[in-house]
Amino acid sequence: MELPVLGWQALVILVVFGISLLIATYSTYAERVIAAFLQDRVGPDRAGPFGILQPLADAVKLFTKEEFFPAGANRALFVFGPCLAMVTALMASAVIPFGNYLQFGTTIIHLQGIEVNIGMLYVFGVVSLGVYGIMIGGWASNNKFSLLGAIRAASQNISYELAMGMALIAVLMMSGTLSLREITLQQSVPGEWHFWNIVKQPIGFIIFIVCAFAETNRTPFDLPECETELVGGYHTEYSSMKMGLYLFAEYINVFVASAVMSVLYFGGFNFPFQYELRDFLAQSQGAVTAQNIITILGVVAVFIKIFSFIFFFMWVRWTLPRFRYDQLMRLGWTILIPLAIFNIILTGGLILFGVIQ
């Protein structure tokens, strides 16, 4: 039975990658629609009904654009930069549990690409590698604005990864595991959905979501591509699909960050009254069918949470102005890192005195 299980898991990995690409593609459409709504104007309405085919039109435009290489650019690294950014973004989605499991006879299929017991470290490490794609692309462009954008991206990621890592340490102290699946299951208590980590770690969640904005280079932390100062930042010299890879990588990173926050703090595929519903369905449908239905509803629940966070990312972009660079650095080093250290000490004290488990 090993081969069929491996085959199913390979299919799950392909589906996860496909969903990541699809969400990244249509995030560009959602961005325009949400921006139009917040600014009280008409959004995309030309390509297809309600502009639904606009992402496909954008993809065709990017694929058919002329390839451009700046004079003096390192051609190999110029191409490698956006490819690395895209690959690392996709790799991060492989360990996220999008559902519990489906059972067909004796075959059990976990709705997770890869289950590793260091899933949290894996995501943190792979996402950290994404900055190399930006640095390589900015340096290989032979453009001073691109180089400045790459330097900003590197310093920004290093600064905010420290606070993000400390926020994760607090979750690790409570859960005792680095497995994203185990962390999700630990937030699943019959009849008590308020056991989600957001109740136990509100400070850690605030730190994490602020750092997520900085790690994904989203407004108000989009200094690496600040148009008012750096023209376009690290991708100033990029065109065609190489530019598209950088844009897709950013949206995939937003999707991954939203998924990680849903798993770590909002129960992942858990939803209120799932055990009561499962027991009710088991009386008429059988235990296996009831569990499969609950798993499917869990997938719907986790994507509702993910899409809510993606909406929040876009809402903030069209609401807040970007920080100055000195403000960005000061927030990371003098506010978030001390706050994260305080949160670790507070979490340790609460665990020691049995207030939280």
TrEMBL record:
Its principal location? membrane
What compartments host this protein?
Answer: Cell membrane; Membrane
Top-rank taxon of the source lineage equals Bacteria
Q: Does the keyword Oxidoreductase apply?
A: no
Membrane topology note = Multi-pass membrane protein
Which InterPro entries does the entry mention? NADH_UbQ_OxRdtase_su1/FPO, NADH_UbQ_OxRdtase_su1_CS
Instruction: Extract the GO molecular function terms from the UniProt entry.
Output: NADH dehydrogenase activity; oxidoreductase activity, acting on NAD(P)H, quinone or similar compound as acceptor; quinone binding
Q: What is its EC number?
A: 7.1.1.-
- What GO cellular-component annotations does this UniProt entry give? plasma membrane
Task: List this protein's GO terms for biological process.
Answer: aerobic respiration
Q: What task does this protein carry out?
A: NDH-1 shuttles electrons from NADH, via FMN and iron-sulfur (Fe-S) centers, to quinones in the respiratory chain. The immediate electron acceptor for the enzyme in this species is believed to be ubiquinone. Couples the redox reaction to proton translocation (for every two electrons transferred, four hydrogen ions are translocated across the cytoplasmic membrane), and thus conserves the redox energy in a proton gradient. This subunit may bind ubiquinone.
Q: How does it assemble?
A: NDH-1 is composed of 14 different subunits. Subunits NuoA, H, J, K, L, M, N constitute the membrane sector of the complex.
Could you identify this protein by its name? NADH-quinone oxidoreductase subunit H
